Every structure is written in C-alpha cells, then in structure tokens.
Amino acid sequence: MIRALTGFSTRHPWKVIALWSVIGIFLAVLAGALMPRASQAQSGDFLPKSYDSAAALRIAEEEFGVTSDASTVTVLVARPDGKPLTGADQERIASVAEELGGRRVAMPSPQDTSTKSDDQIPFLAEDYSQTPEVSVGMTAPDRTFELLSARLEGNAVDPGMHSLFRAFREQVVDAFADVDLRTGFTGGLADQVDTRDAEEPTQRVVGLLMLGLIVLINVLVFRSVAAAFVPLLAVVIVGGAATGVVVGGALLTGIMLDASTPSMINVVLIGIGIDYFLFLLFRFRELLQERPDASPRAVAAEVGARVGTAVTSAALTIVAAFATLGVATFGQFRVLGPAVAVSVLVMLLASLTLMPALLAATGRGMFWPSRALKRAPRPGLAGKTGDLVARRPLISLLAGTVLLGALAVGMTGIRMDFAQGGTHHETRAAATAAEIARALPAGVSDPATVYVTGPDGQRLSAGDLGALPGELARVEGVGKVGEPVFNEQRDAVRVDLYLTHDSRTQAARDLVSGPVRDTVAAHTAKDLEAHVGGTAAIFADISTAVDKDLKTVFPVAAALIALILLVLLRSVLAPVVLLLSVGLCFAATLGSAALVFQHALGEPGVNFVLPLVLFLFVIAIGTDYNILISDRIREEMEGRRPARAAVARAVRHTAPAIATAGIVLAASFGSLAVGSNAATQQIGFATGLGILLSAFVLSIVLVPAAAALLGRLIWWPVRPGGRRGRGKHAEPASPVRPAADHRPDSCTHTG
Q1: Between the CA of residue 69 and those of 42, 317, 446, 531, 588, what are the distances in Å?
Q2: pLDDT (tens digit, 9 = 90+) per residue, 155-185?
Q3: pTM value?
Q4: Cα separation of 520 and 530, whole Å?
Q5: What is the per-residue pLDDT across 689-742, written as a single tens digit (0 to 9) for each?
Q6: Beta-sheet strands, E only, within 500-555
Q7: Quick one: CA torsion of 140, 143, 145, 149, rounded to 10 degrees?
Q8: Which residues contact 602 (CB under 8 A, 6 or more apart)?
C-alpha cells in the first residue's frame, strides 16, 4: 500500500501537487469561514449531564432561556470626575439604558472591520445583528458607579460576534458621553475581545518569527532555498486541508468543537508535517549522494517507500495516543483527541503522496545551490556522537538516565492548579473588573447561581425556599445573595450568589464545590431539586472530570502505543526499551515544569491539563523519533557489519534529521509560551522542552546506547543480521562511501 502510493505520486508528481494545492486551499478557506459554526465557547457544554453544573446549565436554558450562546456584558457607568452619582445621574442612566435596550445593533460587514482577524467570506458570515437586553443592576455602596447588564446572543468565538460587541460598545460609550458619564465594560465577551485585541500583534510577530526560524534552520542545514521553503508551503497547504476535513466532519455529524481546536491542529501539523518532510529530505539527499547517476524520481520513490514505513508507524502512534481521548468523559478532550487524530491522518496521507511528489518534481534542484550532492558527506558532529555512543554505550546510557532522572525529581510535591490561567495584559475589561471589585464582591459580574425546581411543574413561591437564602448568606465567601427570580411558569427559581472571590480563581471553585453545595444539599426541601451553576461551579466539575479521565487515558494510550511498536518492530524487547525511555522523558518534562513554575516562580502548581498534554505529545512524539532511529538501526543491522558499527552508522545518518526536526517542533510548540495566558505558557514551555529531550537525549543517546549494549538481541525473537539485508539499504551501491564507514570496525563487536 505504501509503495503503491509513493510510486504513483513519484510517477505523476505534478498531478499530485496540483490536486493537493486545489483541495488544500479550498478546504482552508472553507474551514476559516465555517469554523465558528462548528465551535462552541462554553466549556460547561462539554461536561457530562450527570455533573451538577451541567444540570444547572440545562435548567438555565430550558426554564430561563439562557442559551450557551448568550453572553452577559457588565457595563459600569460613572461620573468622569469620580464623585458619587446624584439622583439626576441615576435617572439619566435609567433613561439611557431603556433607550439602548430598544436600539438595534447592526453587525459591521467583514469589509468594515478594523482588524484583519475579522476577515470572513461575506456570504458565509452569520449576521448577529440584534436588539440587546439591557437592564439596570447594582449600585456601588459609595454610589461612585452603577452597573448595567447587557445580554448579547451569538457564538462568542465567532469574529463576527466580536465585531458586534465592538459596535455595541461604541453605541453605549457615545450614548453616555452625551449625558456626561463615562463607561467601562467587563464580562466574558468583553474580556475575550480585549484580550484578543491585545494579543493579536504579539501573536503575529511570534508566528512570523517561528516561520522565520523554521526557514533559517532549513537554510543552515541544507544550504538550499527550495529545501527551506517547499516543506513549509507544503505543510501549510496540508494543514488547511486537515482543518477543513475536521470542520466539515464536525458540521456533518453535529459535533461541536472547542474554540482552541484550530490553533492546536495548526501547531501539531506544522511541527509533525515538517518533521516528516525533513525525514524524507535527509534520506533523499543521502541516497542522491550515494548514487550520483540515479534518476531522482526513482530515488524519490525508494525514499518514499522506505521512510514511509517509519513515518506511517510514527503517525499511527500519534493517532492512537490522541484517539484514546475519545474514551474521556470530558467532552472537550473527547472532541479534541479525534480532531487531532484525523488531522494527523491527513498529514500522513500527504507524507506518502504530496511530499514524495515534491521530491520527484524538484529532484536535485531541491538542494540548489548547495554542492553537498557533489562531495562525500563528512561525519560531522552526528558521526562523532554515533561513534561515542557505540564505543561507550553504558556510560552514554547512564549519563542520559541521570539527566532525565534529576529533572524528574521536580515531580516531588507537585500540585495541580485548576485555575483557568489568567492573562498578563492589563486590558480595559480587566481594569473595569478591578474597579468594580474595589466596591462590590469580586464575583458580581459573574455570579454563582442556584437553581431550584419543583416536581412535575409544581408552582413555587419564595416560602418554598425556606431557610436556603439565609443559610447561603452565612457561608463565608458569599458576599451577597440576590433576590429569588422565578421563571414565567413559576416552577423554577434562580438565586444568584455574589462571591467575594473572582469566579476564575481556585478559591471560588473550592467555595462552590464545597460549602455552597453542602449548604444547598442540607437546606433544600426534600420534594425540590437544586443545582449549583456558574463559571466557578463549571470549572470545579471540569477538574473532577479531568482527574478521572487521566486515570483512564494514560493506560489505554500506553497499551495502544505498545501494540503498535510490537507490530512495527517485530520484537518484544525493543518496545519495552522505547516505552521505558519515553516514560522517563515524560517524568523529566513534568518535573521540569514543576521546578520552573511551581517551585521557582511560585505558581500554585502546574496547570491541570499539562500532564495529559505532555503525556500525549511527549510520549507520542518521543516514540515518533524513537521509531525513526530504531527503524534505521534495524536496517543497518541487517547487513554484515557488527552491531555497534551499525548503531554508529544509524546515528550518523539519522541524528541530523531528528535534531533538526526536534528543534523545529520545539519552536512550534514553544511559540505558545510567549502568550499572555499562564496555562498556555506552561504548555508551550513544557512541551517544547519535552520534545528537545525526546530528540537529543532519547533518540540520539539512550535508545542507540541500549541497542549497542544489547546488540541484535534487542530484536528478539526476529533478530536481523547474518545475511546481506535488503539490497542497497544494507551497503551503499555507489563507489562514494560515507566517511563514517571508513572505520566501521572501530566499534567493539556486540551481538
């Protein structure tokens, strides 16, 4: 199958390239336009229905008409001079609020938006124009400001909705400026828009720097213009196609994606896509050096077939790791895992078709103007490393193990932080929230909510709540309890709790999941049903769901990866060596994150999703690199050379590809570390470090050292060797002999 795909692609390269280009560009454009329709912003919608906050969301929607697409914006209105509001001021505020509640807000067209990030295809863009619900809320105890509540309907992740909010904000600012009052805005949608606007310039610069770094690395490695840009262009096209497939699949199946899915797919595909292209490029250059008279298309077909086997196994490892998220109870994981798995499968198809076609089409021109094809390759640092590892395998193994073990010590006393990860931008929304918190409970703009319902539509009254409101007011951390609000049928009632803690903090989550829920359970009448909802309650339940999922996903993913390695390597011992090494690397990476963020920077702990992200990426991608080096070691051992000489040669030829790929992929993930979100910073730093450790310690040192120590025994029960191997793969066919082969017997014979 692999040979057939690569053979067809190299025989008809331009047709394959044209087909991928058309499909990739079309799907990328379509995905960009339709992604908001396939995404949802509310994390609570991903919780299983059995969780308390999920039940509260259901009641809010069914009984009070609060949909997951409803965004509440808190508007602060105050005097410009900072003095207390007068009675006349408050009358003007009520009058303007009533006027705003009856004024339609038109969503600007994509052409009218001021930011490029809001560009959309006009006929596919959803029109969110609406008349918002605006009501007067609390007044500060010192009367320095009054709060309004505005409800906007629409998908909060859609750039069109962001444009609508900006238009609404402009209307409100102008309306109150006409009566000499100033305004401020906060709440989920306001926070999201302000943070996005603040981060966008940085993200653009970081994105350009990352792409520039990838190009620079390729230029330095290959001394070629085509080899620097072609892989990047190919991966961008394939990434667009993969995103289009995921979005299309989500729309067809009715599955809603998380808002972070596109960025995660892009980071993953840029990294592994360039990795796979680099694996092909290095082997293509190696064979062209060995066979100066060979047809580039024939060499491209052979490279595609040979490296394609290892790439397929590596990709399936990542697919298996992410597919295990399908068994998670938390919907955000259950959706993200298959989405990334499908994207990797698209990239795998491109690795077996588009990439070999590009090699066949460009031929030796891929490495222009470099003269590397006209001279015998030098051993370089990779050759010296291979020789050292092969001559001193025990010392190399111990050194790598000690390094990873020392970093793993950082896991001692590790704590999980379930905070959402605040940002470091001082946005207008953050400043408004801080001003409100100085006079009112911190959670006033995002209250926790208790929903009480009666049996079989029984009508409720304030008396049915009994002592519940009073008892909730006595709970330490509850600043104020709102008046009960009944639905139209009066068979459900809502009670808002204004916490003294910001709803995004761990303190708020501990409060609602503990004392608040305990109080509700103890003081709700037996014939009534009560649930606690709100942001703090949702994330408290998410932390519980994630903790349960980690205990399920880890062993399932490890078992699937072990099975793939067993089938690929046709060995019992080699998969054990590989899994132990990546397990140690995972511990070292998580320990490093704890050392930096928890112990050095004083964070409450490492973000609660970090262990899962690291497990998937470090285990899967670490195994990726291990598969590449192991496959080459096995290939070299199929010849007549001694086992340690085979290891030295395998490292010499494979280490440059792994090192380059590791740096590129680490840079791709590391770009996340420069964002303002604390959780994203941890993920970017730790994942980038884990990939570097996987590439430079595991795949270049530990695994080759273990292979040199065990010799051909590592492949038991199907040990290679004692025969000539697979034709030209065993020994170079041309008279040009790599420098690393000048002294193959300098390594002690083992196995």
Answers
A1: 8, 37, 16, 21, 41
A2: 777 888 889 999 999 999 999 999 999 999 9
A3: 0.75
A4: 7
A5: 998 999 999 999 999 999 999 988 888 887 665 444 344 444 443 333 333 343
A6: 529-533
A7: 50
A8: none
